[in-house]
Amino acid sequence: MFDPSGIAVVGASASEGKIGYEAMANAAAFDGPVYPVNPSGSGTLFGEPFVESVSDIGGDVDLALCCVPGPALPDVLEECGEAGIGAAVVYASGFAEAGDEGERLQARVVDVADEHDVSLLGPNTSGFVVPERDLRCSFASGVEKIPAGNTAVVAQSGGVAHVLAFQSRRQGRGVSAMVGLGNRANVGFTEAIDYFDGDERTDAIVLHVEGTDDGRGLLEACRESDTPVVAYKVGQSDVGEFAESHTGALTGDHELYTAGFAQYGVPTVDATDDLLDAAAALGNSPEPAGPNVGVVTAQAGPGIIVTDRIQRAGGRLPELGAETRARIDDVLPGVTYTGNPVDTGRPMPEFGELVTAVAEDDAVDIVLVYELFEEALGFPVASLSGLAERVGKPVLFATEGVEEEMAEEKAALAEAGVPTFETPERAADAAGVLARYAELSARVAAEEVSRDA
Predict the structure, then answer these.
(1) CA atoms of 375 and 402, how far apart (whole Å)
(2) pLDDT digits over 344-386, tens only?
(3) Fewest CB atoms less than 10 Å from the CB: which of 26, 94, 221, 315?
(4) Out of the domains of life, which is the source (predicted)?
């Protein structure tokens, strides 16, 4: 599905606005053969000649994008299976989310897919995108603008998948893949997590979860993943009927889900932006050894916000060691606050030295730096570059300023692999996720050792 040699767009249409046209328009960018399939089609579509059936395709095809009504799907999948096509995206709705008749139709579809060993994404999904491969198996517009990154977005809702992907573009981060699971006919959270855990393009996996009838499978896949996983479970209030009509989701008790995620080592968040921030922190950093955060700020006000927010988000602010305090006092002899957080009062040429001193403190597991941009001084890029890898700790950076004035410096931080945030709250919350991840991972590891013993 996510690495096809060729694609068939079944139900391709020459009529703009129809799913068969929009899906073909996006898929045509793929660097491989893309075949428009429609028995009533004639001529070419995006330079490719129409084919009557998938069985008439001469070349290799691994993936079918099914732009057909639900009742036609069993026959289409039968043809795909007989043609050796191993994966299909089903855009149509009207299945398990639509009542008893839809459930019966979905059961038929799954039976056909299982008989022919076809992996199904959907039904009732807007598809997926793998930007690095120009693999745009979505009918939504604008997906060609989603940049490549290292976060895999796995969302129960295709709409939320696209929301996250477009947010990642706005944040300048991008995704390794964006997947809308829809009704999860036979490809669900378990299969997706397992796949992206082994994907070399992916360094973090984020989940949007409405509900599932295989909660144990979801949690075990998260625990088995070597790639960090962060989850956003919606449904704290009563949205059960709405969610079930959306993707056939059984929302269940929200507190049970969040407790289950915690038990299996997965931190949870409460917003889409938080998901992407957490992924940036986890996916671009060494794994934190603990929840202790060292803060260095060039302005006291944002530093107070950061300090307060980190502690509410699950992090701790340890006392810095005597050697670290002496190093700081050499640079800031009694000028401002030199505990934790370290406050310099304003940016300064030695700012990077202070960050390095805090990062090298044995009591610190995570470093968070806040500095409003001053053009005359810039950011301590040289000090931050490679620092996280050298000390084996996450180093996060937050700032604000006029975008065009700090664009070059922010680009340098991105090039150096430093996770960067635009508000003190978002940076602090990301540090809080790192802290919770460290504690949850340690608890899971200890439980596994206890079980083995």
Answers:
(1) 10
(2) 988 899 999 999 999 999 999 999 999 999 999 999 999 999 9
(3) 94
(4) Archaea
Residue 314: pLDDT band by 50, 70, 90 thresholds? very high
Say whether both 289 and 266 belong to one domain.
no
Q: How far apart are CA 182 and CA 127, in angstroms?
A: 9
Please report how many Cα atoms fall inside a 13 Å half-sphere around the Cα of residue 374, on the Cβ side.
13
Two tokens, residue 34: 């893309």
Counted residue by residue, the chain has a size of: 453
Indicate if 207 and 313 belong to the same structural domain. Answer: no
Give 141's DSSP letter: T
Tell whether 51 and 102 lie within a shared domain.
yes
Shared domain for 229 and 183, answered yes or no, is yes
- Respond yes or no on whether the N-terminal peptide bond of residue 341 is cis (omega within 30° of 0): yes
Regarding whether 310 and 328 lie in a shared domain, the answer is yes
Q: Quick check: 242 pLDDT over 50?
A: no
Q: Is residue 290 a contact partner of residue 438, using CB atoms and an 8 Å limit?
A: yes
pLDDT, tens only, 154-168 = 999 999 999 999 999
Q: Which domain holds residue 163?
A: 146-283
Total domains present in the chain: 3
pTM: 0.93
HSE-CB at 361 with a 13 A cutoff on CA atoms is 33
What tokens appear for 47 in the block?
A: 């330079």
Report the alpha-carbon distance of residue 206 to residue 217 in Å, rounded: 16
Residues 88 and 175 in one domain: no
pLDDT for res 225: 97
> What is the C-alpha to C-alpha distance for residues 208 and 233, in angstroms, rounded to an integer?
6
Asked whether residue 409 carries a pLDDT value surpassing 70, the answer given is: yes
Tokens of 344: 């310099």
CA distance 398 to 387: 16
Q: Looking at the predicted structure, is the pLDDT value of residue 268 above 80?
A: yes
CATH number at residue 417: 3.40.50.261
Regarding whether 263 and 312 lie in a shared domain, the answer is: no
